[in-house]
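Weekly sync, protein design subgroup
Attendees: M.S., D.O., the rotation student, P.L. (late)

Item 1: inverse folding check
M.S. brought a backbone from last month's batch and wanted to see whether the design step gives back something sensible before we order anything. D.O. pointed out we never logged the input encoding, so this time it goes straight into the notes. Structure tokens as presented (322 positions):
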């Protein structure tokens, strides 16, 4: 780019004929024309700084060229040699540490590709066959998980929600289930566990289990066949010498009542269908009946006939009135 020509082109004292020559020279090259337009904007900005007749074109053009060639000043801070070496060493150590950590992670994953295995039932009952041939039946919206040591050095399971277990005997490896603030340990038995916001309930159908608080080992008991136990959130324990078979109706599909108080029967029905229960009358009668794989509407219709109660339900609640 010919800077002297451009200076004359922008200078207002330049004759009209010379300006036309300069314009022809500019028009010959499109890229030259674009550059001139950029320079024109810079020149006009410089012109606004003071009256044009006071402008020294040579010095202003020097400023203009400086602005074109370098818009920013780059500052370099000299780093002492020792500090420079420290920085390089720190980068190398960090890189080595990250590489070592990644190698260790990859080796661990390759040796144990499954750290935890999780099974969830979502909105349906789900059966899970464990590596030791034990069987777990999950109620809806429940889950279990276990790590890669299961059936090798341990048989530990973490449960959320409700499940029925058929644990295979193995005296060398006790079968343990951790739920809420409790732990159940067995060597081979059939039992169910239910985790509620207020308590953990264990029902034993066959064999025996050790049932204790995971927070206070002194709170615990042995539950045998046809016994049930409750550990409440305050770590208190209750043991009952009976099992309400309707507590696992979600698995068996059966609700069985024999001279059962109507209130208790309604509670079992509500639990079976995952409903809340709202009672607005006093209930004194008892109920003897059996329901197998029947819908909620069919069961409530029979209850209306047997008890003369007003029983209705919505998506979430069963409402009982006189």
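Designed sequence read out in the meeting:
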């Amino acid at each position: 780019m010919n800077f002297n020509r451009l200076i004359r082109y922008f200078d207002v004292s330049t004759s009209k004929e010379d300006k036309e020559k300069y314009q022809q020279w500019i028009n010959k090259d499109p890229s030259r024309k674009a550059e001139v337009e950029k320079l024109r904007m810079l020149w006009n900005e410089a012109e606004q700084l003071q009256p044009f007749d006071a402008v020294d074109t040579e010095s202003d053009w020097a400023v203009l060229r400086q602005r074109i060639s370098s818009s920013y000043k780059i500052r370099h801070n000299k780093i002492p040699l020792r500090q420079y070496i420290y920085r390089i060493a720190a980068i190398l150590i960090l890189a080595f540490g990250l590489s070592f950590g990644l190698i260790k992670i990859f080796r661990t994953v390759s040796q144990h590709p499954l750290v935890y295995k999780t099974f969830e039932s979502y909105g349906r009952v789900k059966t899970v066959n464990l590596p030791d041939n034990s069987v777990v039946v999950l109620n809806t919206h429940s889950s279990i998980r276990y790590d890669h040591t299961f059936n090798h050095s341990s048989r530990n399971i973490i449960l959320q929600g409700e499940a029925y277990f058929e644990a295979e005997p193995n005296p060398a490896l006790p079968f343990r289930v951790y739920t809420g603030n409790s732990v159940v340990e067995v060597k081979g038995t059939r039992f169910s566990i239910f985790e509620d916001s207020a308590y953990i309930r264990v029902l034993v159908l066959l064999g025996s289990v050790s049932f204790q608080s995971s927070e206070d080992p002194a709170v615990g008991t042995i539950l045998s066949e046809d016994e049930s136990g409750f550990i409440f959130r305050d770590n208190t324990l209750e043991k009952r010498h009976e099992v309400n078979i309707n507590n696992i109706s979600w698995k068996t599909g059966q609700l069985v009542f024999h001279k059962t108080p109507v209130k208790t029967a309604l509670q079992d029905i509500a639990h079976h269908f995952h409903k809340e229960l709202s009672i607005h009358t006093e209930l004194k009668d008892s109920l003897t009946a059996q329901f197998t794989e029947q819908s909620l509407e069919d069961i409530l219709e029979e209850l209306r006939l047997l008890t003369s109660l007003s029983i209705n339900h919505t998506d979430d609640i069963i409402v009982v009135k006189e």
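Discussion: Residues 3-69 form one domain. The first strand starts at residue 116 and ends at 120.
Action: P.L. to compare against the previous round before Friday.
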